[in-house]
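Residues determine shape. We examine one folded chain.
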Amino acid sequence: MWLGIGANVACAFISILWTQDVLNFLHLEMAHPLVWPRFAAFLLILLSIFYIPSAIDPLAHCYSAVVAIICRFGGVAFFTIVGGRYIFFGLFDLAFGLPQAILLLLAWKSSNAIRSAR
């Protein structure tokens, strides 16, 4: 979870500071005004803040952990539908969402097995 938060924040700060360079690097059309892609990057930082409780303790903050994974797969679905060169953003979310979902499932199973053994 922490790796995904760090990746989100790093990508967002880079996108805020060097918006034109990021758009050129990804071969995306230039936005006018640049405030909109910068605002989207800012919203990514805010979204990442909401992931922090589940990163600290995903079992204690179960709702936050599930919502974090749903948000990742929501990004995958959205950018898959949009398609084109924007698919990169969906793959980014998939790269973090799938391991997070698997690890959360394993943590739940482990927690349930420990409770059952008591």
